[in-house]
Amino acid sequence: MTSRIYVALDTTDLAQAKSIATRVRHHVGGIKLGLEFFCAHGQHGVHEMAQLGLPIFLDLKLHDIPNTVAKAVRALAPLEPAILTVHASGGRAMLEDAKAAAPLNTKVVAVTMLTSLDASDLTATGVQGTPHDQVVRLAALARESGVDGIVCSGAEVAAAKAAWPKGFFVVPGVRPADGHHGDQKRVVTPRAAVDAGASILVIGRPITQAEDPDAAARAISGTL
Ligand SMILES: O=c1ccn([C@@H]2O[C@H](COP(=O)(O)O)[C@@H](O)[C@H]2O)c(=O)[nH]1
């Protein structure tokens, strides 16, 4: 079975990204490239990484007016990413237009509440309710807008999936039981995320910063 792990290659160093991806390729199901990598290497860098033959998750978290996001999605279309992110809080029209502009085989997933935020961060942004409420609310908006799924933490994925059984659920903020959380606040273990209904897990530093990324990816994979 294909691994549910997408390794987040958050680096500006193309050679390092290639080297880590090559080392972990047998224990992951795909590569996640985000803002750091894309700002440094753009579409050329994505093409280079795609040569490794693993599915590409382009995590650009697009968030702007509908016209701008749709045109950005169209500009990214030649890359044919397996997965592309937009922010759910961009609203219904933005989500609809992003999905309409994406290639047929690209899953458009909407980021609900970043895993680096907790309840007090949410309150500070002026949003009423708990992280759970916010994720469930934005998951409903994403489903009604016709995108393919959402990004949320492992703490909310079971509730989101109960309301959207056919949705695609991306869970970052994943740490092995003894793992360092860093800037992540809503964290679960890989096993707990899968048990709760995650379709895929996004895992960066626990693999990329490990002394032996291959062994780290293999160890995490072995818990799933
Ligand atoms: O809510 C979110 C959305 C995206 N991310 C991204 O996932 C990885 C996580 O990296 P770690 O090193 O495992 O913390 C990173 O690329 C984020 O941009 C997220 O963490 N939370």
TrEMBL record:
<keyword id="KW-0665">Pyrimidine biosynthesis</keyword>
<feature type="binding site">
    <location>
        <position position="184"/>
    </location>
    <ligand>
        <name>substrate</name>
    </ligand>
</feature>
<feature type="binding site">
    <location>
        <position position="10"/>
    </location>
    <ligand>
        <name>substrate</name>
    </ligand>
</feature>
<dbReference type="InterPro" id="IPR047596">
    <property type="entry name" value="OMPdecase_bac"/>
</dbReference>
<comment type="function">
    <text>Catalyzes the decarboxylation of orotidine 5'-monophosphate (OMP) to uridine 5'-monophosphate (UMP).</text>
</comment>
<comment type="subunit">
    <text>Homodimer.</text>
</comment>
<dbReference type="GO" id="GO:0044205">
    <property type="term" value="P:'de novo' UMP biosynthetic process"/>
</dbReference>
<dbReference type="InterPro" id="IPR018089">
    <property type="entry name" value="OMPdecase_AS"/>
</dbReference>
<dbReference type="InterPro" id="IPR001754">
    <property type="entry name" value="OMPdeCOase_dom"/>
</dbReference>
<feature type="domain" description="Orotidine 5'-phosphate decarboxylase">
    <location>
        <begin position="4"/>
        <end position="220"/>
    </location>
</feature>
<comment type="similarity">
    <text>Belongs to the OMP decarboxylase family. Type 1 subfamily.</text>
</comment>
<feature type="active site" description="For OMPdecase activity">
    <location>
        <position position="64"/>
    </location>
</feature>
<feature type="binding site">
    <location>
        <position position="32"/>
    </location>
    <ligand>
        <name>substrate</name>
    </ligand>
</feature>
<keyword id="KW-0456">Lyase</keyword>
<feature type="binding site">
    <location>
        <position position="175"/>
    </location>
    <ligand>
        <name>substrate</name>
    </ligand>
</feature>
<dbReference type="GO" id="GO:0004590">
    <property type="term" value="F:orotidine-5'-phosphate decarboxylase activity"/>
</dbReference>
<protein>
    <recommendedName>
        <fullName>Orotidine 5'-phosphate decarboxylase</fullName>
        <ecNumber>4.1.1.23</ecNumber>
    </recommendedName>
</protein>
<dbReference type="Pfam" id="PF00215">
    <property type="entry name" value="OMPdecase"/>
</dbReference>
<dbReference type="GO" id="GO:0006207">
    <property type="term" value="P:'de novo' pyrimidine nucleobase biosynthetic process"/>
</dbReference>
<feature type="binding site">
    <location>
        <position position="205"/>
    </location>
    <ligand>
        <name>substrate</name>
    </ligand>
</feature>
<feature type="active site" description="Proton donor">
    <location>
        <position position="61"/>
    </location>
</feature>
<feature type="active site" description="For OMPdecase activity">
    <location>
        <position position="59"/>
    </location>
</feature>
<keyword id="KW-0210">Decarboxylase</keyword>
<dbReference type="GO" id="GO:0005829">
    <property type="term" value="C:cytosol"/>
</dbReference>
<dbReference type="InterPro" id="IPR013785">
    <property type="entry name" value="Aldolase_TIM"/>
</dbReference>
<dbReference type="InterPro" id="IPR014732">
    <property type="entry name" value="OMPdecase"/>
</dbReference>
<feature type="binding site">
    <location>
        <begin position="59"/>
        <end position="68"/>
    </location>
    <ligand>
        <name>substrate</name>
    </ligand>
</feature>
<comment type="pathway">
    <text>Pyrimidine metabolism; UMP biosynthesis via de novo pathway; UMP from orotate: step 2/2.</text>
</comment>
<feature type="active site" description="For OMPdecase activity">
    <location>
        <position position="61"/>
    </location>
</feature>
<feature type="binding site">
    <location>
        <position position="115"/>
    </location>
    <ligand>
        <name>substrate</name>
    </ligand>
</feature>
<feature type="binding site">
    <location>
        <position position="204"/>
    </location>
    <ligand>
        <name>substrate</name>
    </ligand>
</feature>
<dbReference type="InterPro" id="IPR011060">
    <property type="entry name" value="RibuloseP-bd_barrel"/>
</dbReference>
